[in-house]
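User: Can you predict the 3D structure for this chain?
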Amino acid sequence: MRYLALGDSYTIGEGVPADGRWPAQLAARLRAQGRALDEPQIVAVTGWTTDELSAGMDGSTFAPPYDLVSLLIGVNNQYRGRGAEDYRGEFRRLLARAVALAGDRPGRVVVVSIPDWGVTRFAREGGRDIARIAAELDVYNAIARAEAAQAGSRFVDITGLSRAHPDAVTDDGLHPSAAQYALWAAAIEPVAREALTS
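Assistant: Here is the predicted structure, written as structure tokens:
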């Protein structure tokens, strides 16, 4: 079975080894459960916003249908101060593309929530408005959850894990460590397993 992971720095695993990325850890966990799953095809670049992911997909080669597709995108929209309604429209179009790549099987698409970078050392030491970051990301995540539900796709909330483990980050003080990604993979695994049997 084949797995496609779409996203940004959180999906490509900025600052961690390739096998430490959460999509790679998720695939390993699913294989350990007896699922014959290839290494994930990852289309993700650090810093990408929703529109940049869409452009990146335009320039990528796909071989659908994929048995599992994950989508985690939006933190850079929030970081750059873009509006929530712009995010909604762009996210909806990305989700539709993800469903198409999953062979028009929306239940094979897993949307993952955006972690809260405001709790990290990078934000704390940078004097960021932590409450504002959290509030804005909560709005973005509510949109992603609602769009996933409307499309018939699945949603996994890992934001709480990011808030509970603010120091599980790489040396840059911002991006999650492989240990934090392991927690995400553990949370996503049962939902991905259900997706693969849908």
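The mean pLDDT is 97. The first helix runs from residue 9 to 12.
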